[in-house]
Each structure stands twice: as structure tokens, then as C-alpha cells.
Amino acid sequence: MLIALFSSEPENGMSTTPDLKSLTKILVSVAYPELQKNDIITSWGQISSYGQVRWSADDNTIQIRVNKDIGTWHQAGIIGLLSHELSHPSQKGSGLKEHKTDEDVISRGLGLYLAVERLIAGKYEDHIIQRGKDRYLGYRSVRNLLTPIEIKSLDLLMSNLKLKPARTSHRNSFSHDSIVYEKDGISTIAIDGVTFVIPQGLIDPDIKIVHRDGIVSVYADEKIIGQYEEFEY
Ligand SMILES: [Zn+2]
Q1: Packing angle between helix 148-161 and helix 111-120, nearest 10 degrees?
Q2: Alpha-carbon gap, residue 202 to 212, rounded angstroms
Q3: What is the DSSP annotation of 38-58?
Q4: How does pLDDT run across 134-159, given as a tens digit for each residue?
Q5: What is the dihedral of CA 149, 151, 156, 161, to 10 degrees?
Q6: Which of 161, 176, 209 finishes a domain?
Q7: What stretch of H or E contains 165?
Q8: By the 8 A CB rule, do 102 and 114 touch?
Q9: What residues form DSSP beta bridges with 211?
Q10: Does some domain include residue 167?
């Protein structure tokens, strides 16, 4: 199993924050050969989604930020999230669709980590976005797309982690990740399948997503750049 490549639990039993740089390096070497040429920068940050990926078609850079609040997640879940973020810029086409991105992760043999990530993130069922035009696959759908060997590995990993697949009573509307894509000097941001153009002049802005009274407001460097209705699913 691939997890053997990643360091196991620390010997002293204390949990440590996973090293994003090393995990990403291993992921690129085993599953994302086309990203070897890219300059990938990873960091923990205070962001309003689990992950954020920003890449530029102009200069081969990829930045991945992971919410520091999930530093306590088991490493398998962090690997699942990093895989999803790496799969955004790896796809042909725009890479802005979440469902396609999840399928890309699974096609690279990393689906079991994605399944663990979805379970920890409270997504047993699919998280439908963009009024049904796109979705994040939930644990159940990811598992259904795995090969028999991958399912065995997943079940073994889950029992090692003492994780039990269970439907969550409340749906989690927290935005899963945000994507910033730069091309020809124009930055586009996609959140929950909704895209906005970032006003010119804002370079690598701090993105904030605020859910209030059924409305999601997106800010770039404190300036509001768009709003949309929270989709009840
Ligand atoms: Zn995504």
C-alpha cells in the first residue's frame, strides 16, 4: 500500500503536524509525473476552506495552502486533500470542476486517501454544488469507484485508524476548497463551482469566504468580489 511510503505514526505516540512539503514531494513522484517541472509551494494557513490551490499557466508555479485547523487530521486525510489540490492543475482543460478533479485523484490510485479525507470532512454522501451541475464525491461514491484491491486497502486503513464509515446527521456546508487560476494576467477564482474574476491589481490576495443567512460572500484582500446563494442539498 502507498501509505507505507509515507512516514507512519511517530514513535513517542505524540501527534505531529504532517510535513506538507515531504508529502507533496512523494505524491508528485509516485502519481503526478507531469508536475515534476512545476515549482510547488505548500504551506499551512488561516483560510476559510480546507484547502486552497493557486496555479498559473504563465509561470509553472503551484501554491497549495492547507487550513491549519486540520493539522490534527490523520495523515491519510491530509494526503487525500493534497491529492485533490494537485489534481486541479494536473488535468487537461481548465481543471476547475470538482467532480472531475476527484475522478482524476481516483484514476491515479489515490482514491483510498480521498475516501478517508471525505469521511473526516463529514462527507459520507456527495456534496452537491452549483445547483447540481457539479459535486464533491462523498465517501460512499469514492469507495464505489475503487478497485477490489483498493477497497481492501481502504478497509484495512480505516480499521487501523479506528474510523467507522457513518452518515453524518448534519450536512456540512463549509466550502471544501478554493481554486485560483491565472492565465494571461487574469486571475479567476472558483469556490463551490461559482467563478469570479479577481480585479486586476490584487496580486495573490487573501481569500475569505463568509457564509451568512444563506448567502456566501467572497472577499479578496477584504474587498468583496462576489456573492452567491448557499445551495441547500
Ligand atoms: Zn477542489
Answers
A1: 40
A2: 25
A3: SEEEEEEE--SSSEEEEEETT
A4: 999 999 999 999 999 999 999 999 99
A5: 140
A6: 161
A7: none
A8: yes
A9: 216
A10: no
168, 124 contact by CB (below 8 A): yes
Would the pTM of this model clear 0.85, i.e. be above it? yes
- Write out the residue range of the structural domain in which residue 217 sits: 187-229
* Distance from residue 78's CA to the centre of ligand 1 (Å): 14
Residue-level pLDDT at 68? 94
Q: 114, 144, 161: which is the final residue of a domain?
A: 161
Distance 220 CA to ligand 1 centre (A): 18
Distance 114 CA to ligand 1 centre (A): 12
The answer to whether position 179 is within a domain reads no
Name the nearest CA neighbour of 195 among 183, 206, 179, 184: 179
Are 117 and 138 within 8 A, CB to CB? no
Query: What pLDDT, on the 0 to 100 scale, is given for residue 2?
Result: 58
154 and 199 in one domain? no
User: How far, in Å, is the centroid of ligand 1 from the Cα of 149?
Assistant: 26
CA–CA distance, 117 with 33 (Å, rounded to integer): 23
Answer whether residue 180 is part of any domain.
no
Please report the sign of the dihedral spanned by the C-alpha atoms of residue 127, residue 53, residue 1, residue 148. Answer: positive
161 Cα–ligand 1 center, Å: 25
Angle, nearest 10°, between helix axes 111-120 and 98-107?
130
